């Protein structure tokens, strides 16, 4: 389905410098694009590839237009403009509507007539599958769970009983929404299970990555607000609340009853303890551990960068004695102050102790 | 199924202060409970909510009874008492017995007559599904695997061939028990696979979280003893042994052939190297790396708390030179000792070197 | 299927010291082996078990032959020799060929006649399943995906549309290959999805662990070269390239567009940022964070070892002031230099400042 540059410029409100009748049919990287492809430049890391690109057109910031040898489509937000163009060139494939042979849908479930249920998928009693939804192959939708319109479980997704998804929610394979939270009470003879009687509520336009887990609440619900985007292999524990439009990279874990603000950006493999509050617009860099509430928006870090193993070993051995080292420095300062005092009778200039 | 406070007091051995005929039918948080709900107070963080609660009754420690405006059920372990009451108010839904239409059960498998196999589940030859077990929708039970009585695979669980589960084992969606351990031998032309000929044995009353993986043993079995509770997205490598009643939070990884003691409490995203021994009753806080055996019970930590990114960068840059910093401090001490010695002829007070 | 020691020696090119007619039928650990079992010694940690072993034969390095009371099979690489022997004693069980009752295979898919598709598996239109492949129970193979000959999806594996697997690829349960990469463009009103139009290409002899996720590329493909071995619960983001024969332990995450070299060994729970290059033959120890390219082969580390919690707290509190501590040490050095200068007029010996 080729589109001309003129069509793209008009539909996406972009200024075109180039031949409006030139057709493009696919996307490509600057380096590998041919005349039939559209490319983009958003990450300055790739700017050096601009001069040699053979792309049919490049979506980029107006300030860089002069560096491109061919046609350009100008946008202050070239990545977003590219995303919209790519979505037009690569429409999501249609899914089969109706209930596939090999699916199991309880007669007490409601499936919209224009929704689809793939082979080997299972929909339990009382579940409601909204208009234009797709329950992909091998997925499971538990009793009384609900999918808002245009939601899609790609394949092998688990939606446990009573979980409610908004509209246009996209869930990738292997994700598990609504498994029991990790609630245990200790008794002398071992741990007993605390029933997890809440559910999970997921807002509109949420995307949930492959093999990510979002646990159901202990009493009240776990909540993921609209526009949240979760990458793969993320753990969201019971009664967490994630504010609207927050994005979280892969392998991050959030412990129970923590509230994450809106529009946060959380890096990969971050760990957040339970019962905390993270302010709106907080940024956490990768592999950070958060063990106290962060009430002030800002950028926070917590992981040491890698080093050659031999030097690392020396430094990390010293870390075990860092408190002692600080005390020794204080002792040196005191000693020198005493000596100086004896010689010079000058005033103490503060001990620098900072705990 | 409402129950009266009197019934609850009697069945769970709790002292009631309040109207024994008052009925409750659900659980709720202190803040949101109404007269039909039972609430509890176990975490002191929520004590301030007690005075205003409208709960039909609150389960709490006797010492706090005076702070509650309404009925109370007294327990020295209110969280456990609450768990038992909640289990009574929210009994696990019954599952369909028999083999669902759409399940595949090999005729050489044994399925107890009062067990259930859900739609799209697969049970291979020689597998044994015990009394009152449920093999949930989309689950897989490999050849010669066994489920002890009252065990439940919620949905989309994988139990590989030869794995043995005890009684009352609960496995959440996406968990994989008995995949091959990561055994590789290096040869000049690459890595060759080392057959993983052991299995996994899981004790009674074990709970395994969503998308958690427990690998089969290389030669002997991987073992999870009775009462162990594993959260989501945990990796248990081949030939690990986890002692009875140990609990492990999400995203933790345990490398091969490590033995974890009994009643340990392991935080989230902990990493434990291979071939180690962790003593009974060890506590590991979140994101800790364990690279040596911990033979003495105690609380261990290993993750630095997050900080503002700018300050973090300055401090972590210094970390790369910590060994050098320690040497410089030592040099200062020596220098001062020499100076002092020259002036005062006093003895050296030890060099503080501590490696 | 017992084999004699003589047969094993001949087939695997090993020197035998012992009775060539002695039969063995299984593998066992040194400690628990009986006369019918073959054992091996590769890890020096277990050398002390050699003297008391009752194994029918032990595969070990020639230098240790004298320490074994019974028969030995000598190899300079005993672990690899053991692996080959074990593979012979424990051949992979044959799988049923043909399309199982309860599988859903689109008539436009191509399945080799000697391939197998298990119950509840789904194969979409245009997919190609090569000779002697097995699409295990509950697995999903999306449209136009391809499996090279002798590849095996153990059970409940997801292969998304257009993903291409080489020959002899082994994928463990719950793995998801080809889910959308995490591509988002920010707009004032939230994030919009960037279509992920690339696929995943996986070379020959690759093994992928349980619940591991490998995302499809944004424009070009994500690539895993031949002989790569991935453990469980690993995240490989879009457009990552992993060089041939690299091995990666569980729980590691690799961010988008990073290139990992050949023959690297990456420990568990490592985190690697995006757009980096890691040199061939790089070794990363467990829980390391890599935030810059590593262009020189070597061993790199980045995780602090655990410590008793009380001492850890003192040291990590000091870490928050490490930059200041370094400045104080510098100030002491300067002060002493000034003092010495006044007394001795000796030259400054350098300030040791090292940033």
Can you describe this structure?
The structure is a homotrimer of 355-residue chains. Chain A starts with a strand and ends in an 11-residue tail after the last helix. Chain A folds into three domains: 3-89, 3-Layer(aba) Sandwich (Udp-n-acetylmuramoylalanyl-d-glutamate--2,6- Diaminopimelate Ligase, Chain: A, domain 1); 98-300, 3 Solenoid (UDP N-Acetylglucosamine Acyltransferase, domain 1); 311-344. In chain A, the strands form six sheets. The first copy, chain A, has an eleven-stranded parallel β-sheet, with no helix packed on it. A ten-stranded parallel β-sheet of chain A has the order 9-12-15-18-21-26-29-32-35-38, with no helix packed on it. Chain A has four helices and 40 strands. Chain A is α/β, with parallel strands linked by helices. Chains in contact: A-B, A-C, B-C. At the B-C interface, strand 22, strand 23, strand 37, strand 38 and strand 39 of B face strand 4, helix 2, strand 40, helix 3 and helix 4 of C. Strand 39 (299-301) of chain B pairs antiparallel with strand 40 of chain C.
């Amino acid at each position: 389905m080729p589109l001309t540059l003129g069509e793209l410029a008009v539909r996406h409100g972009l200024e075109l410098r180039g031949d409006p009748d030139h057709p493009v049919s696919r996307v490509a990287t600057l380096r590998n694009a041919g005349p039939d492809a559209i490319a983009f430049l958003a990450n300055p890391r790739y700017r050096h590839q601009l001069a040699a690109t053979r792309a049919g057109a490049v979506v980029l910031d107006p300030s860089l237009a002069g560096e491109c040898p061919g046609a350009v489509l100008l946008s202050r937000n070239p990545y977003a403009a590219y995303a919209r163009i790519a979505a037009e060139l690569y429409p999501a494939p249609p899914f089969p509507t109706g209930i596939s042979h090999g699916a199991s849908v309880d007669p007490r479930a409601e499936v919209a007539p224009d929704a689809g249920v793939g082979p080997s998928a299972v929909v339990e009693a009382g579940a409601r599958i909204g208009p234009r939804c797709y329950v992909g192959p091998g997925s499971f939708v538990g009793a009384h769970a609900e999918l808002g319109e245009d939601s899609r479980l790609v394949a092998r997704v688990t939606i446990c009983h009573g979980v409610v998804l908004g509209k246009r929610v996209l869930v990738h394979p292997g994700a598990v929404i609504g498994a029991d939270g990790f609630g245990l009470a200790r008794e002398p003879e071992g741990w007993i299970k605390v029933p997890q009687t809440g559910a999970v509520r997921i807002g509109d336009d949420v995307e949930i990555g492959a093999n990510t887990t979002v646990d159901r609440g202990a009493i009240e619900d776990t909540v993921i607000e609209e526009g949240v985007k979760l990458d793969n292999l993320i753990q969201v524990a019971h009664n967490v609340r994630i504010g609207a439009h927050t994005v979280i990279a892969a392998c991050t874990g959030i412990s129970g009853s923590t509230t994450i603000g809106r529009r946060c950006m959380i890096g990969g493999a971050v760990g957040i303890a339970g019962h905390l509050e993270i302010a709106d617009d907080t940024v956490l860099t990768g592999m950070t551990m958060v063990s106290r509430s962060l009430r002030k928006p800002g950028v926070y870090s917590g992981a040491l960068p890698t080093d050659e193993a031999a030097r690392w070993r020396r430094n990390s051995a010293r870390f075990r004695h860092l408190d002692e080292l600080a005390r020794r420095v204080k002792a040196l300062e005191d000693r020198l102050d005493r000596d100086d005092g004896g010689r010079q009778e000058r005033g103490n200039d503060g001990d620098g102790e900072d705990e």
